[in-house]
Amino acid sequence: MNRARFISIEGGEGVGKTTQGSRLVEWLNEQEVPAIATREPGGSPSAEEIRRLLVEGAPERWTPMAEALLHTAARVEHVAHRISPSLQAGRWVITDRFVDSTIVYQGIVQGLGVDTVMRMHEIALDGFLPDLTLILDLPAEEGLARAGARGGGEDRYERHGAAFHERITSGFRDVARRWPKRCRLIDASGDEEEVAARIRFAVAPLLPDTV
């Protein structure tokens, strides 16, 4: 029996993570590979409650440590109640963000340190990581323009300054360099289908032999 795979989609604001995650799930199902889409922070009822604390309010609402702890708490609930049960049932899981977002946002950009975030993750989730991480790469200015066009009240991170988001983009590129076996940097420019094709190319080697 082929093992279900866990894939995370990462990147800065407005790069298309949610859209591409949905497209990837649709494509996998077409290949007769059962898959679900989920997100962080959130993905389970308890984690969604924590999400509201993180995506709403003033940008300076939390210290980096408090923010990382909230993300980690939500992640523990997400893994326990959504990700692990789905994988055990044979369904692939495609998540919009996972630990790499905490590494970049709180660890690199907000100064908590990559090692600190990884130690926290090791304690909380025994270092559980995706089989593959797709990092959607787009200039920060373009991503913010896309994010602004979609509107909505969950804009706490988007309201950080432009320099913050430039560091986010750089931080994700650093993650791709640190973990090259797990991470793939995906050019997120162009239309949705072009990006989706790049993602399918990166995911195809993981497909079961029978597909």
Which descriptors would you attach to this protein?
globular, alpha/beta, 8 helices, 211 residues, five-stranded parallel β-sheet
Word description of this protein:
With 211 residues, this protein is α/β, with parallel strands linked by helices. It is built from eight helices and five strands, in the order βαβααβααβααβα. It has helices spanning 17-30, 45-55, 64-88, 99-109, 114-125, 140-150, 162-178, 192-203, and strands spanning 6-10, 35-39, 92-96, 132-137, 183-187. A five-stranded parallel sheet has the order 2-3-1-4-5, sandwiched between helices. The protein is globular, with a radius of gyration of 16 Å. The model has no long low-confidence stretch (mean pLDDT 92).
